[in-house]
Structures are given as C-alpha cells and as structure tokens.
Amino acid sequence: MIRFENVTFAYRGKPPVLESWSLAIPDGARLSLFGASGIGKTTALRLLMGLERPRHGRVTGTEGLRFSAVFQENRLLSERTVLENAALFSDTETACRVLNRLGLADVLDSLPHQISGGQRRRAALGRALAHPFDVLVLDEALTGLDGESAERCLTAIDEITADKTLVLVSHDKSHAERLRAVAVELGSPAPHGEGSV
Amino acid sequence: MVRKWWHTAAAILFWVLVWHLGAMAVNRTLLLPVPTPADTAAALIRLGSTRDFWLTVCASLLRIGTGFLLAVAAGTAGAALAVRWRLWEIAAEPLLRLIRAVPVASVTILVFLWVSREHIPTFIAFLTVLPVIWSNVESGLRQTDRSLVEMAQVFGMRRREILHKITLPSLRPYFTAAVATGLGFAWKSGVAAEIICRADSSLGNLLWGSKNAVDYDEVFALTLVIVVWSVALETLARRFIKGGRR
Hints:
The structure holds two protein chains of two kinds. Chain A has helices spanning 41-48, 82-86, 92-101, 117-130, 147-160, 173-178, and strands at residues 2-9, 18-25, 30-34, 56-60, 67-70, 135-139, 165-169, 182-185. Chain A is an alpha/beta fold. Chain B starts with a helix and ends with a helix.
C-alpha cells in the first residue's frame, strides 16, 4: 500500500501546490487524478515516483517498487531508434512485441524525429509497457492520439496492467473510465484527510 | 554537399602552382631566398631519408602528445567537478581565464625557471589544451537533458548506465570538437615552445637550427611536416572518436 501522509509540497519560491494531502493507494489499484490545471496532479505523480520530496509529511510504501512511466513529454533518446528506445529498460523481444501491439511495427528502425507526434507518444508508452513494473504512472499519456490509436493503447494498458498499480492523469475522463480507474479529484475535500481508493 | 576528393586535390595543386610562380617571381626580382615546391620536396626527401629525423618527429609527438593527454584527463575531471560543485566552478574560473590569456612565449620563458627544458613543450601543450577541453566538456555536461536522466532514474537505471547511455552520448559532440581543436593547439603551441626553449631532439630545435644555417629549403620542409602532422592528428582524432561511437 502506497500512502501519502499529510503531504505538503511547494516549488522553490512558490506557494504550496499540495497542502496536508493524504491518500492511500492499495496494491493493484487503478487511480485517476483529475482537477483544474495547476492543482498539483503532475506534482503528485512526481512525489509518487520519488522525483520530489515533500516539504512536510511523507510518501510511504514505494520502497522496492519498480516504477514505469509516461511523462508529459516523450523523453525519447534522439539518436536511438524507436525499438532501441523501447528496449532501453527491457529486452528487445518484449519491446518489439509491445510496439507491434501499439501499431508501430513499421517504424521500429526509425529515429524519433522521423515519425509523427502520435507515433512518438506511442513509442514512449511502448517503452513504459515493455519495462517490468509494479506501478505504472501515466501523465497525459494519450494526448495527441487519434481515436483508433488511443483505443489500441488503452487495450494494451488495460491488459498489461491487469494485476499492477496504475496511477494516471488525463484530461479525457473517458480514458480513466475505459481503464476502470477510480477518480480522485485534487483540490476537492475528498483527497484531503484520509482518502482511500 | 559532399566534397569529392579530387576537389581538394585540385585546390592543393592550384595553391602549389601559385607558390611555385610566386617563389620564381620573388627569387628573380627581389633576389630573396624563397624555396620553390621542388626545392622544398627535395629537402623533405633529404630529411626523411635519415633515421634521426624520424626519431626527432617521434620525440616531439611523444612530448606534445603527453601534454595533450594530460590536459584531456585534467580538463574532463575539472569540468565534471565544476558541474557537480559550484564552489569549485567559482574557484577555477579565474585560473582558466588566466591560462587562456597568457601568451605561450611568456609562459615558456617563465616556466624555464622551474621546469626542465625537455618538459617545457609538454607543459605548454597541457596549458594550451586544458581550457579548451574544460570549457567544452563543461558545456556538454550542462547541456545533458536533465529530463532524460530523470526518466532513467524512474525506470531504475543505475548511475553507471545513465552515464553510458545518456550522459556520454550527449557529451560526445562537445568532446569531439574539443579534442580536434585541442590537438591542433597542442601541436602548434608545443612546437613553438620547442623553438623557444630549444628542447633537444625536437622539431622546433631542428627548425631553429635550419634557420640559423640559412637553409630555407629545410625551414619550409620542416614547416610542411608540422602542418601535415597537425592535419593528420586532427583527422585521426575525429575518426577515432567517430569509430568509438559505432
């Protein structure tokens, strides 16, 4: 169980993004964070992945967990092919299989700048899904994808995260519903105090 | 556009012809001893046929090459520390500025007091190359995409792997440029130091001796040797680093 215990966080010189925020995420839960822009959704994901440290409070239960993530940006290595990028944290065979599922079979040997924005997004998702993980973090992972590609990606995410923990942020509520993720609104009274999913 | 090899050859041939005609004209009208390409080639063959000449070239290469390699190691380490510790960056900055600003001739004469004549070219090559490597490597490290390092950390990549797969590829273009430029600097400043300090068994000393003997054919031939080595070393360095990338 991952727990955010009275977490307060502020970026240097800025007012707090999260204040005394608590949340419990049981193993294998699917959770969707939503709320107004700037409310702290991405910050909550960064705290979860250990990329930021709370000013007050603590995040527990993440020790020893293997994380995989799709960030708001693709973060692909520009000098490596789509397949090499996807296989960066896994084996080539798994990466190849996942990329094929995401409809990228034709661009495995292409460099990121040689493919479309939607294909780059799927390559970033492929890298995340190919990596063996306990917790998958998706920050606007399907932004910019057409309906068919998004559906293909959602199916893959749904199957691969069957017994894993999934925490996502998406401005499209239908994606969260499609993945049967429990919605947690930031900025509302619910996540404050002892919210549990 | 890819330049074909014969474009370069034709350009060289053109300038050799200009040199030949210029030398002929100066020799005839001003009665100044300017060697023609043929005179220079003859001197080059004469020099190249002796074992001592090649030993001298090797001694100069070894001496200057040592200074260059030491500068690459120290410059890379210094830059890495400067990126890691702001205090070290602040402390080192005025020293680097000073090294960049001081002329080779002044330093050569100054270090005569503390360093043996044989080691002065090594020291000068080191000092000339150090700021070039340092500043380029520092820029390269600062330009490494932090978001990629962050991403790798989330995926549990080890520090050594991050260095190998993310930091070094990002650093490579900066390092290649620094090494190629630094080699040229090292060679030219090293030979200049050899001339000033008259290091034994050195190209610089050979050049000085030819000048004193008023053997301008040999002065031209030796200058040509120095230029050819400078270009060859730079090309070799670029190919070596490019090869290591594959």
